[in-house]
């Protein structure tokens, strides 16, 4: 059955740097350093006044030059007046009811629930807009972004309106071995995005709240996962974390690095040689319940905006087809508090 979907053109208003998105409230004093040779040392922050901040991401490491691109950087503000309405077939998931094994680790920004290993009954996605219909993408991870300002933590905005948080479900082209291999590749990724509100403390007794044209589902399972596992990884540093690394004298305010390649995309050879991070030693915690995109998907999955964009954090590769659902979900206030309490440890 063909269903009606919303479609956003790429010609939406560009929001280059969304203040605070991905920001964790508690951050150690940062290294008084603005650029790095070794990709494993490279660090970025969301502090706009600091030399590792968003406008300077492209200067921090030669692998991150794409962050200065003007072509198709995400996130964006979706100006609905500029969107074009188009019919697409329904996104097709396989094994959506399977809960797949996962681990969570604190990556210092938006902790990932990572799918662990390969399965026969892998969760897959096809019918992706603007990609071949039968092209298959494997579910790799989900994570939630929040902001410095509690009410404006989403990365994308719809008509300049932010939500408190935003969940991303990352899928990679199944021709590749994993998300790491796929992410620099042309059309390598699809990310499904869901805006998140916080369940009011007035304990609404309906599971779904009607908000404009949206029914807002209470994402009970996602709330439970966030409540339980963010607490477990709150203080989990990298094994190699060395507090002496941080210079307590203060921040470097402007980036004086000489990398002038901002906006260029590194060559595939360069990426292969220099840009693959070693497996992080961050201790991870097993998510015993497993995860499925069902934990995150909104009540109404028929309406979404789609555009060709990028990763929203370094290396900012422009390889993502974004699907931003129109309708939000909500999570418990405890889940939101647990996310805010995480330490940024790297
Ligand atoms: Zn994300």
From TrEMBL:
Gene3D superfamilies: Alpha carbonic anhydrase. This is Nacrein-like protein. The keyword Secreted applies. One of its GO terms (molecular function) is carbonate dehydratase activity. Residues 1-20 form the signal peptide. It holds the Pfam family Carb_anhydrase. InterPro entries: CA_dom, CA_dom_sf, Carbonic_anhydrase_a-class. It is found in: Secreted. Belongs to the alpha-carbonic anhydrase family. CDD domains: alpha_CA (cd00326). It comes from Mytilus edulis (Blue mussel). The keyword Ligase does not apply. Residues 42-346 form the Alpha-carbonic anhydrase domain. Coiled coil: none annotated. Keywords: Secreted, Signal. One of its GO terms (cellular component) is extracellular region. GO terms for biological process: one-carbon metabolic process.
């Amino acid at each position: 059955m063909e269903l009606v979907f919303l479609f956003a053109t790429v010609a939406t208003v560009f929001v280059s740097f969304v203040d605070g998105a991905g920001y964790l409230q508690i951050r150690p004093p940062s290294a008084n350093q603005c650029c790095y040779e070794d990709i494993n040392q490279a660090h970025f922050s969301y502090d706009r006044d600091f030399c590792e901040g968003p406008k300077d991401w492209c200067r921090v490491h030669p692998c991150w030059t794409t962050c200065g691109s003007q072509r198709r950087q995400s996130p964006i503000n979706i100006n609905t007046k500029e969107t074009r309405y188009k019919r697409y077939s329904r996104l097709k998931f396989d094994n959506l009811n399977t809960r797949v094994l996962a681990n969570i680790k604190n990556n210092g920004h938006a902790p990932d629930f990572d799918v662990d290993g390969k399965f026969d009954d892998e969760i897959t996605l096809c019918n992706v807009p603007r990609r071949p219909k039968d092209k298959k993408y494997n579910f790799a991870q989900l994570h939630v972004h929040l902001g410095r300002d509690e009410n404006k933590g989403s990365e994308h905005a719809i008509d300049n309106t932010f939500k408190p948080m935003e969940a991303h479900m990352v899928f990679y082209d199944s021709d590749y071995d994993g998300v790491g291999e796929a992410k620099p590749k042309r059309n390598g990724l699809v990310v499904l995005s869901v805006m998140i509100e916080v369940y009011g403390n007035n304990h609404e007794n309906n599971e779904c709240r009607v908000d404009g044209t949206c029914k807002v589902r209470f994402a009970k399972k996602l709330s439970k996962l966030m409540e339980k596992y963010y607490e477990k990884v709150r203080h989990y540093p990298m094994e190699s974390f060395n507090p002496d690394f941080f210079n307590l004298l203060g921040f470097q305010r402007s980036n004086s690095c000489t990398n002038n390649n901002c906006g260029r995309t590194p060559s595939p050879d360069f990426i292969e040689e220099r840009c693959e991070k070693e497996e992080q030693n961050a201790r991870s915690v097993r998510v015993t319940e497993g995860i499925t995109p069902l934990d995150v998907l909104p009540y109404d999955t028929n309406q979404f905006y789609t555009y060709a964009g990028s990763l929203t954090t370094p290396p900012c590769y422009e390889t993502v087809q974004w699907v931003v659902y129109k309708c939000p979900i909500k999570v418990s206030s405890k889940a939101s508090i647990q996310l805010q309490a995480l330490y940024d440890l790297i």
